[in-house]
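README, section 4: Worked example with a bound small molecule

Sections 1 through 3 covered apo chains. Here we extend the same pipeline to holo records, where the ligand is supplied as SMILES alongside the sequence. The molecule in this example is NAP. Nothing else about the input changes; the structure line simply encodes the ligand pose together with the chain.
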Amino acid sequence: MDDKNDEKYMDMALSLAELGRGTASPNPMVGAVVVKDGKVVGKGWHKRPGTPHAEAIALRKAGDKAEGSTIYVNLEPCCHRDKLTPPCTDALIASKVARVVVGMVDPNPKVAGKGIDTLREAGIEVELGLLAERCEKLNTAFAKHITTGLPSVTLKVAQTLDGKIATSTGESKWITGPDARRAGHLLRDQSDAIVVGIGTVLRDDPALTTRLEGEGKSRDPHRIIMDSHLRIPLDAKVLNVDSKSKTYVATTVAASTQKMKELKRKKAELLIIDADPDGRVSMPLLMEELAKMGMTNILIEGGARVNAEALRSNVVDRVMFFIAPKILGGDDARGSIGGRSPESLVDAVQLHSVHYSRVGEDILIEGYIMKEGPEASGAVSGEPQSEQPQAEDRASHKRRRRKSRKGKQG
Ligand SMILES: NC(=O)c1ccc[n+]([C@@H]2O[C@H](COP(=O)([O-])OP(=O)(O)OC[C@H]3O[C@@H](n4cnc5c(N)ncnc54)[C@H](OP(=O)(O)O)[C@@H]3O)[C@@H](O)[C@H]2O)c1
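The generated complex, written as structure tokens:
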């Protein structure tokens, strides 16, 4: 085995897999490279559900040359028969591949190692775990969705240095510079859905489309408006936008049935979600519903109240704060996270795997929400500049502090 070349070809498989970002969902992003006598004889990647898997495409391209070859694939080949596409293990065995190098085990309980066992039983050499960390990071959303039935959620905020997302009159265009805005559109391009509150629609009338000028095709995520009582105006841009993706209005049974009919005539889709105790669309139930619809990557773009509820109800996995070198000041300007502040610092939302970078004139701070309980270990590996406190330690510290406060209160 030549470790350097193995890494080179797995890296190639990962780059191919990346091409499926934004289209492969709810399936995983997978790339495959077939190598014979030191030459690449077939490559493939999975484009969208229902289309051939990466291994099948790469093997087809390799043809007879697949016999005795090595195939590199970032995710364990599938072995189940309940899909539109046949199992990849069958194709690998039929092609007489000699060796399969796999980045990670498929977290899908229907596969979970069985694909590897099938190949080994057929006499094929299998190596597991090459560039495993990168492979796992690439398919974090798929892994969460397939194991929990929930989507992977990113909360994105564009704010001033003093944490404001809009002026006292609600003006927010543009807080951050062109590079940060482009990064925001790239995020939209890679997400299945973008969620905003009705407050933002009423104030800004955004189109919520992806605009990456001069960069080829971009993809609009589905637009989800949280609007418990259907206050959305029929002439709102999100209801009249020319886009291949849909606008969903998430509402409650308390909304007017007449307005529901009018929205259907505008081709908007209605999602009737149970209300939370405050009578608003329940955030966790909305996330569950979106996951059931096959949306695995959700981007929340606030306003302040929706951001607050997303954090409070613990649906967020990752945050991305673009911070502009501007200071607005004022108690009357809208802060990025609304609602009530906790009484103690120990109850602040903590991040792990934090990464700091410069985006044009702005700073981006991104990180993963530290969760208590079993989810705390779900940390995605950090970047070189990252700060990685011990997730378990912080969580148990928080619990201890809470306990001691309760004790003091008697
Ligand atoms: N700089 C940025 O990154 C950025 C991004 C977006 C927005 N903004 C700014 O933010 C401001 C709007 O923020 P906002 O706080 O007023 O409005 P918002 O967060 O966009 O929307 C809040 C409204 O959403 C509805 N909603 C439904 N279910 C909810 C739930 N579970 N939790 C919370 N809200 C729910 C509620 O109205 P109902 O009870 O009627 O349903 C609520 O009043 C605007 O000025 C906009 O320009 C800035």
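What to look for in the output: The pocket of NAP is lined by residues 157-158, 165-166, 170, 172, 175, 196-200, 203-204, 226-229, 231, 276, 280-281, 283, 301-306, 309, 334, 338 (CB under 6 Å). Residues 210 and 257 are 31 Å apart (CA to CA).

Section 5 describes how to batch many such records.
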